[in-house]
Amino acid sequence: PAPQQRIAAAFVPGSTANSVTIRPLESGAAITLGANDAVVIASLRYEGGIGARATVTFTRDGSETGLPQTTPMGRRQRPQWPVVEVRSDRARARGSHTTSPMIFVIPAGTYGLGSAELSGDTTQFCLGTIAFTIEAGQTLHLGSFTMRPGSGALHGSAPPAYFGLRIDQPDLEAGRAILGSVPELAARLQPATYRNGFVRACEPQIDGTIAPIYGFDHPAGIWPEVEAQDSQPAVIEEADNAPVETPSPDVNYAVPVEP
Fold first, then answer.
1. How confident is the model over 63-72, as pLDDT tens digits?
2. Mean pLDDT of 217-231
3. If you placed Cys at 70, which of 37, 79, 110, 180 could pair as Cys (CB 3.0 to 4.6 Å)?
4. Helix/strand/coil (H, E, C) string of the chain?
């Protein structure tokens, strides 16, 4: 479906030097939560050639402003901007490569789908994206992500897509299985509820440029009932010619992965 409204991009001045990347816990590692911490689970499948690696990131942003939302972190409790990085292993053969569900301990807050990357080609989602909010002590499954190389464009005037991306309903049983050592977390596991149209700001890269930008919607807005068998994938949608001012003249479009 076409986006229901046009969304203009906003840009964050300066750099993202105060960001901190949150990576998944090592297998078998103890899960320790602070007073403001929560747990999320996600899995990622890459479909494509040898040597590629897929990454999806969520950033902690202001629920109303979409600007980076810092929080005290680390031993010195300095303000940091949390970035959750869901990353696949590097493919060693052609075909489908699925990572096991990953566990992340993150500060409570609102997180927007910030970007996706396939072998160095990055697209930012700051023309409207999906976001979820998590409270301290909650355990949420973000869903099952699939990425594959792009094979075309959604519009005749658009350049070829970098990749396709979709999100399917989470496998809660698999999620509970990897949380088995902490029964109280496993019992609290629920699917994340995403909202559409979250306006987050585009952040500059290390060299000061802005990666190609796009919008991302979840067709259903929220997950279907957990008991339902049919999933509602989220797919990258056409940007609907939204007005954009960016240092890069190119806006690269991605295409949905076919079920």
1. 988 888 999 8
2. 53
3. 79
4. CCCCCCCCCCECCCCCCCEEEECCCCCCCCCCCCCCEEEEEEEEEEEECCCCCEEEEEEEECCCCCCECCEEECCCCEEEEEEEEEECCCCCCCEEEECCCEEEEEECEEEEEEEEEECCEEEEECCCEEEEEECCCCEEEEEEEEEEECCCCCCCCCCCCCEEEEEECCCHHHHHHHCCCCHHHHHHEEECCCEEEECCCECCCCCCCCCCEEEEECCCCCCCCCCCCCCCCEEEECCCCCCCCCCCCCCCCCCCCCC
* Residue bearing tokens 């789908």: 113
Model confidence, pTM: 0.78
pLDDT (0 to 100) of residue 97: 62
**Structure confidence by residue, pLDDT tens digits, 147-157:** 888 766 666 66
Give the angle 111-115-117 at the CA atoms, nearest 5°. Answer: 140
CA distances to 72, 83, 129, 172, 212 from 37, rounded to whole Å, are 11, 14, 24, 20, 32
CA 191/CA 184 separation, integer angstroms: 16
